[in-house]
Structure formats: structure tokens, C-alpha cells
Amino acid sequence: MQARLGEILAIRNLMWSTTESMIRNPDPWLDGHVQPNRLAGTVYSWFAVSQHSRIREIVQEDLGSALIYLPSHAEDFANEELRPYLDQYVRGSRGADSVERVKVLKAMWDATGSEFASGTSSTSGTIRGPARTRASRS
């Protein structure tokens, strides 16, 4: 798991540094304006498609059902009957309580398993259009 987490962090750093390059090394444009660096933007566009899918794959394989059996609502923690079970069976490791663990896992679900994440993964390759169309716009 640590190696795969390292892979996710490496992907995050790649995407972050590419974004930084787009911003910090802008290309000249019209009337003294600038636009994001096109070379870095091309790299970002290419890697974003494959790497989002890779992160999604890692999270779903390594966390599996942990993303599914979460409490349905935050109000479950206020329920005096449910709370002891949540604290016992949904607690995190290294001192993290059940609330903290659920927050992290819900964020992971939003990023990898929700309708938004599925849509991002499936459309990110097509939203830019065919390569020949993109090249002609440049």
C-alpha cells in the first residue's frame, strides 16, 4: 500500500509541477497579454487522462469495500444507538477516530467513485476533441 500511495503522490506532484510551469512560464499572446505555457499544457492534458484513471484504479483496488460501507449521513454519528458501532467498526488506524476516517474515505469516494469522478474519467479524453482538431486550433 505504501508503494502505491507513493505512486499517487508522484502523480500529484507531476500534475502540480506541470500546472506551476503553465503559470510561471507563460507564453506571450496578443496585446501584451500572456497565456499559460502551451508545452506544459499539452503535457498536462496528456497525463491527466491516464493518471486520473490510474489513481482511481489504485484507490478502488486498495480500499475496495471501505468506500461502500460508510455511514450514509453525518447524522448517524449523533444517533446514540449507532455511534458505539461506528466507533468500534469504522475507526481508523493510529488513533484516528471514526469521524476522521469517514471524512477521508468520503473524500476518496468523491474523487474516485462518485458520478463526478466517473464522468471525469470517462470524458477527459474526449472533451478536448480529436488531436487533428486541436492541432488546427493552435
Global morphology: elongated
Mean pLDDT: 82
| Tally of separate helices | 6
Number of strands: 2
Q: Kindly state the percentage of residues in helix.
A: 55-70%
- What structural category characterises the helix and strand content? mainly alpha
List its salient traits:
138 residues; mainly alpha; 6 helices; 2 strands; 63% helix; elongated
Description:
The structure is a single chain. With 138 residues, the chain is mostly helical. Helix content is 63%, strand content 3%. It contains six helices and two strands; from the N terminus they run H-E-E-H-H-H-H-H. It has helices spanning 2-24, 38-63, 83-89, 98-112, 115-123, 131-137; strands spanning 27-28, 34-35. It has a two-stranded antiparallel ribbon. Strand 1 (27-28) and strand 2 (34-35) form a beta hairpin. Helix 1 (2-24) runs antiparallel to helix 2 (38-63) and helix 4 runs parallel beside helix 5. The N and C termini lie far apart (42 Å).
Short description:
By secondary structure, the protein is mainly alpha-helical.
Task: List the SSEs and their pairings.
Elements (H helix, E strand, L loop, with lengths): L1 H23 L2 E2 L5 E2 L2 H26 L19 H7 L8 H15 L2 H9 L7 H7 L1
Antiparallel strand pairs: 1-2
Helix pairs in contact: 1-2, 4-5
